[in-house]
Amino acid sequence: MTNLESAHKVNFAKPRCFHTALKSGLKETFFPDDPFQHFKGEPLSRRTKKALQYFVPIFEWLPKYSLSLFKYDLLAGITIASLAIPQGISYAKLANIPPIIGLYSSFVPPLVYAIFGSSKHLAVGTVAACSLLIASTIEEVVHQAENPTLYLNLVFTATLFSGLLQTALGLLRLGILVDFLSHSTITGFMGGTATLICLQQLKGIFGLKHFTTHTDVVSVLRAIFSNRHEWRWESAVVGIIFLVFLQFTKFVKQKRPKLFWVSAVAPMVTVVVGGLFAYFAHAEKHGIQIVGELKRGINPPSLQDLNFDQKYISAPIKAGIITAMVALAEGIAIGRSFAIMKNEQIDGNKEMIAFGLMNIVGSFTSCYLTTGPFSKTAVNFNAGCKTAMANVVMAICMLLTLLFLAPLFRYTPLVALSAIIMSAMLGLIEYEKAYHLFKTDKFDFCICMVAFFGVAFISMDMGLMMSVGLALIRALLYVARPATCKLGNIPDSALYRDIEQYPGATGTAGMLILQLGSPIYFANGGYIRERILRWVRDEQAITDSKGNDVECVLLELGGVTSIDITGVESLLEVTRNLEAKGIKVVLINPRIEVMEKLILTKFIDRIGKESVFLSVEDAIEACRFSLKSSVQITGNGNA
Amino acid sequence: MTNLESAHKVNFAKPRCFHTALKSGLKETFFPDDPFQHFKGEPLSRRTKKALQYFVPIFEWLPKYSLSLFKYDLLAGITIASLAIPQGISYAKLANIPPIIGLYSSFVPPLVYAIFGSSKHLAVGTVAACSLLIASTIEEVVHQAENPTLYLNLVFTATLFSGLLQTALGLLRLGILVDFLSHSTITGFMGGTATLICLQQLKGIFGLKHFTTHTDVVSVLRAIFSNRHEWRWESAVVGIIFLVFLQFTKFVKQKRPKLFWVSAVAPMVTVVVGGLFAYFAHAEKHGIQIVGELKRGINPPSLQDLNFDQKYISAPIKAGIITAMVALAEGIAIGRSFAIMKNEQIDGNKEMIAFGLMNIVGSFTSCYLTTGPFSKTAVNFNAGCKTAMANVVMAICMLLTLLFLAPLFRYTPLVALSAIIMSAMLGLIEYEKAYHLFKTDKFDFCICMVAFFGVAFISMDMGLMMSVGLALIRALLYVARPATCKLGNIPDSALYRDIEQYPGATGTAGMLILQLGSPIYFANGGYIRERILRWVRDEQAITDSKGNDVECVLLELGGVTSIDITGVESLLEVTRNLEAKGIKVVLINPRIEVMEKLILTKFIDRIGKESVFLSVEDAIEACRFSLKSSVQITGNGNA
């Protein structure tokens, strides 16, 4: 039982005190990116300045701003403004609110984001999925047609809740929650929403006057086909022409990325051409509906419009929570992916605060939910924006539009807006991505499909929640059934690897080397115990026929990142069970946190310090030595 | 960039087909203990026999049963029967149902368990926590005082639901669900319940007639003190005498484990002495309440009493689900811990089926929820039981009691029952265990305390669910924030270990070796990306001052048990980001499932097969070689 002299020393140092462990745990949980790294060791004045720059990024980039940068931002800002006007009006229609609100929403929030946002490429604006989500949730308590003012007030209230939640999550550094919306969930959710919205736009294309307020494929299709008598061929022809035009410009962009601006200004062209056509052809008389009056003037305050009436409050809260999460997931993911292209860093929690403030201020100034939509941000990026100044330029363009041009948009035909929305949505149905998921990970594909079909056939929030639930179950299954494997020696080396993966690896007589992975704790303690015992049984079944027996079980713990009380108890049960069979249990390379817990729970005292090794070789050598010198003396004591 | 000849070959074998991977995944999830191992390669007749023996364990042990074994089981059976009578009556009182139901519940279920159960030591009976849980849940819809028949019928219905759920979980091999009730949760839940029940028993001790139906500490204490005018000193004196006697016998058992039978028969002695006292002293006239009439005869059928009325159904369903889980957790944990002492194996899923059948049959024969209570099982074990025959003996004793002796128990004073319950409950408040949790794992301690205070001050189901919820959050945190560490070379060896744990370990110039642990997937992909980039930044900050820069990042993946699409994308983002900085990324020892996913998603093609190594040494050697031969040529391509 003596340890060999040649073996490397295992660190049995005293466990760190609770305070140290807690501090490091909290830091890893809430500050994984160590945001305050730059402040360390600086004098107070510099630290204050840096902190201010950290929390309000405009202080960092504005002093260094130059005219040469502005040239780029000016161009980018005008380009995204030309996209913001048609999109603003269209998505506002989707949310069942007056189109002017869509324009308001591209004025104030971009200014707020320019101050607090840390992404250089993100363009602020409204998004289709959240617009529809708000509409479907608020419709549950108030019908827009019956009480449009109350409905609008609840939309503002929902935006406020969204903003408050986003700010709170950012301040509490709970960016971790957004991580639980996986790529697969988002792909499926976006695809489902896009399908739904496309079908809904058939209303506009066919010029229907009556429609359903439900947002599932079956209701929408039924509404379209049951109102066949309302179909107007004039509307449909115009709609299809616009749609073909928009899709063609996208095709051009795809073939020649340099001509990205063609597709960027296409919606604006559609709106202008559509408006001129409607004005001169008196389209309204031929069954083509138009947007109608748009008041001149900037955002009126809406603080007094916020409605906290207990009777309705549940709907804005629900809409606020769901849209906050979806908007964050979209905005942060997009900001991050463009930052990575330029090799910059985005702090998710800071972005949350920026989004939150933007929505809080928005809800006070007649705006509804905004985030960083993919389409607009991509256009911004391609147009060569350099800083958040592009958002300021866009806001100024919107200001001018609101002050002078807004009434001109009254002749915009609804069918043109429907074509714009449909064209944008068609790009969000990423069937190649779904196919890629199917090829590489069937479970991810399931998660994606649950979101897609859930959104399309049940409801948007249910679909999202079902998909997140499935992803969580998967996460829990991962931890409940961690992989274990049997190690063998790779010939001509000192390496021990999984014998399933490396079939050439050979076992060691009388010993069974098992590698455990992932944390061991209550959810998988029982499984790991059973699995180890099964490995031993299987090994005994093989060795029985050969005559030599398993006398040592070596547990490689290098991959075990942590262990809790239940986990330690499971190991203890394994040890007891195996010792009763005369099998010695040996631990190899426990990591620092595991070792601390094993020392605290006296597990190390129980098996003896001489049964813990730093490497598989050391352990094998020691076991061989003890097998030779004292076969089966140890281990029967506690049977 | 060429790989060195001396390096060991990495297995880039073609990924296993989906079917194989799915089959192995399902097997590990649902059949971790490989229950059908004995059937392989046997002829059909033997296989049928073995399968029958597997599903109905009595066929396995009964043919081998002998008189010498029966002697032990007879003694153990009589001992537990003497415990079952007072406990049955007491716990039935706790559930607000007629005491005779408690006796019925110790007759049929033990027989069913003897047929289907796989534990040799488990003694079947009712338990305090579940009795109170049923009462508190059913009271939500029907007050026992107002409609005792309906109340009783709903209790039977709850038992049926419990049994159905348990059987279904067992058949679906969802024993995994029980794993999510951690030891800490159970310790806290049991402690809280025991505290509550102890306080409730003050009702019996003080001889109160009016009491609350709420089950939280505040309501119970208020009920006791607001009814002070009902306190009867006669009752209190008798109660305290009994309690002292019972606690003394426990003390004797603790000091002399051989005298365990003293505490085992003590409750029976209490009941008999109490009954005789009540009979001869006409105790009822002195304010000491008695149990009252107990009908002679065995269990009447109760199939026709089951109530599925929509108006009430929610309560029995809720009670059924919660008690099923709690009963399973207690029964399986106890069966397993005694099996481990005797070095035997228990199949959790088979036990679930046995418990389920026992409760289904029980609900048809006027029994309420039964499981394997700790106290009774411990007595059974200590009394030397050898097989499930001890349960049969107990059932026969109960049969005789029901047929002949039941009416004699009508004089049992309620105060004696209260003393029995209190004494049993005091043993369940494991403050040493809570202290042990506090010393070893603060988070486990929190989980335990949430269960304890939740049960004591809110309600039993809320307390349980809050604690399980907290444990789940912890499980998700474990996977959302997996530990990463920087590896260094342990002097005079080829070992690379955590430099925090082994401060003597030295780094390698120009290289940063990181060890990742646990699965990489959507919940932690973002964190791992940020953490790796932070390690690189930190390393650069150190090396900057020394003059040499990080040129290679080596990721040790031996501890990563699986990876999903989001995880691969995170690695890809890391690679892109680091390559843009001119840093090369190298993978070391990916496990089989990770390697499959990396090949499928073309990540390996992206970084090149020559950037994957089997061991840290190989990787370091290759990196050193490529650094020397071509410094910083690679890696800038994608910037």
TrEMBL record, chains A, B:
Any one Pfam family here would be Sulfate_transp
Superkingdom of origin organism: Eukaryota
Keyword tags? Membrane, Transmembrane, Transmembrane helix, Transport
Please report the record's description of how this protein sits within the membrane.
Answer: Multi-pass membrane protein
The principal location of this protein is: membrane
Keyword Membrane applies: yes
Where found?
Membrane
List the SUPFAM superfamilies: SpoIIaa-like
MF terms from GO for this chain are:
secondary active sulfate transmembrane transporter activity
Domain named STAS: residues: 501-623
According to the UniProt record, one GO cellular component term is: membrane
- Residues that span the membrane, as ranges: 97-116, 122-138, 150-174, 231-248, 260-280, 319-340, 352-371, 383-405, 411-431, 443-473
Q: What is this protein called?
A: STAS domain-containing protein
